[in-house]
Every structure is written in structure tokens, then in C-alpha cells.
Amino acid sequence: MYQKIVFLAALLIGIQFAGSAQNLGEILLMSGKTIEGNILSVDSVVAYEHVKKNGSTKMRYIDSYRIFSVTDSTGEEQIIYEQDTLVGNDFSAEEMRYYVYGEQDAMAGYKVPHLIVSSFILSGVGGYYLSDNFVIFAVPFFSVVLTGTPRPKIQTKSVRDPKYLSEPAYVLGYERTAKSKKILLAIPASLLGVISGAAVYNLTK
Predict the structure, then answer these.
(1) Confidence grade of residue 14 (pLDDT, cut at 50, 70, 90)
(2) Could you tell me the CATH number of the domain that includes residue 6?
(3) What's the pTM value of the predicted model, to 2 decimals?
(4) Do residue 107 and residue 74 come from a single domain?
(5) Residue 26 within a domain
(6) C-beta of residue 154 within 8 angstroms of C-beta of residue 165
(7) What's the pLDDT score for residue 181?
(8) Which residues have a Cβ under 8 Å from the Cβ of 166 and sit 6 or more positions away?
(9) Distance between CA 100 and CA 139 in Å, rounded?
């Protein structure tokens, strides 16, 4: 009897948590990232309840200038972003949506495994030949500049809709995010490469 009561209680709690998870709203940030939660109020600051995996909630706040839109639990979207050239919001709301889509597609699908290898090898060679020269400290910087800063090419497989490629705002959002991704990948690869190159030099000399 006791086991049945425990089972029923757990089942009811599970259903309640599943229901609350399905009814969560969504905050779409200007960076392309999304935050799920129960939207409580929308003003200069958006207040929402963050629902943890165990079902407990925590009140959180986020400045509205960081937000593109807020979607409530019913699926109704409210655009928070406003075009204002005085604060750098040059895009219209529609253009900004394309920009955010570009950011999201680059975050989700832009892959550059060869960049990690090339950054490591380039820095490794520099670390080996310049291990006894103070210039070695500049090797990772130049490696990142050479491998991470060139304009990235849009990988069409990661684009959610090919027609977006004709939208300048989408292309800009994609390329900026892809470039940031390249640099963030090149930095650790370059540092590890120069350390490895210097280590090999000291072990072989």
C-alpha cells in the first residue's frame, strides 16, 4: 500500500513538472541565445522564473536592451527590440530577426576542425624555432591573427533556409558569430601549439 502511494505521488509530481516545462516561455537574446522560463513581467528589465531540473524555481532578471523578443507560454511573441540609431540599433525589427537567425545558425552549425589543426601546427613551428627568443610570446597572437581573423565562409549546410542568404543582416550575423567562433577556437590551439613546440625543442637539444 505504501509503495503504491509513493508511486502515485511521484507520478503526480512528474506530471506537474512536465506540464510546467511544456508551458515555459522563451527569451530570445540579441546574441542569438535563448533562455527558457516563466515570464513574469516585461519592462526595462524582464523578470522571469528559471525552472531547474528538480522542479524548483529561482527568480531572475535581465535587461531589456539585451533582448530581441519574449515569447510567453501560449506562443505569443512580443518584440522588445526597437530600432534606434542613437544607441546603435540600426536594423529594423525584421532585419534584426534575420541577424539573430544568422547568429544562431553559425553557433549551431559552423564547423572549422581544420582551423584547430592549422593553429596548433603554426604555433608549434614558431614555438620550436623561437623557443630561446623572447619573440616566442608573440607567436600565439600572430597565429590567431593568421588563422582566426580572415572572413569566414558561410557553410550552406548550416543555413536553416537558403533564401536567408539574400538578406544582408542574416549574412552579417552569421559571419560575425562565425569569426568569433574561429578566434575562440584558435586561441587555445595556438597556446598549446607554442608550448608543445618549445617543449619539443628543449627535449631534443
Answers:
(1) very low
(2) 2.30.30.100
(3) 0.81
(4) no
(5) yes
(6) yes
(7) 94
(8) none
(9) 34
